[in-house]
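Mods, move this if it's the wrong board.
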Amino acid sequence: MINFEGQNAQEFYARFNSVDSCKEYLSEIKWKKGFICVKCSHSRCQVRANYSRTCNKCSHTESPSANTLFHKVKFGLDKAFIICFEMATTTRGLSASYLAKRLGITPYTARMFMYKVREAMKSSGNFPMVNRVEIDEFVVGGKEDGKVGRSYDSKKKKAVVALELTDKEKVKRMYVNQINDFSAKELRPIFDRHISRSANVTTDLWRGYRPIAKDYKIEQIPSDTGKNFKILHTMIHQVKSWIRTTYSYVSPFHINGYFDEFFYRLNRSGSKKTILHNLISRMMDKPKLYHSKLICT
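Not the wrong board. Structure tokens:
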């Protein structure tokens, strides 16, 4: 199989111009290391015309999309691939209503599949930041009278962001976690998941970072209204602007998914040629999700 590379829309539509071409691509990814029957673990099979595999021993037939995030896509794999392509390569915000109109599906269907794509965009956490890291918190939401700074009783969605910089002061990687408040307990997970203990971390003077400094190399300096964290605050402004100009409202249930989508593209800006193939491969590695798990309650 030749992996799809690049972000050229014309090449994409020429390559994936039918449901069968999408099934073929998924089958090559799914069984690139060989077929193993999920029922009896037999390794010999027959390849069907629709790229499914039928076990020679127990006759179980498995489709390329079975038990993945493409499981039983009702509106066509070709449309599912278009959603993946748009979300992986388009830097502007894409709402479910916009994609639904373009693809001729319902907004509910588009929203549910986009949620699955964002599941695949989650960071694995396997590659912690090891160089210079800056950390700060921010909120998402409109203005609230009498609520300034780190207001604990604010209805705004709270988040903590970690930014890794190169030696030339360029953005290397960035991760965000939603938090319930600004305590050390809520701030700690982004350190444990995304930051190496050998990294040089810089934060502002907020007291919530002091307990974490026992385990990480943290230097606390005055923020000076953001002037000492200029690049970090610029990136925070970008993600907030992206959310604000795309969605009129973001629920606490879905906001981490929007963060995952934004930073999936940002963190792969140096590998844009393989960004779509990487996303589709991630969706093939993830187990299927049922709609009952996708609906905000």
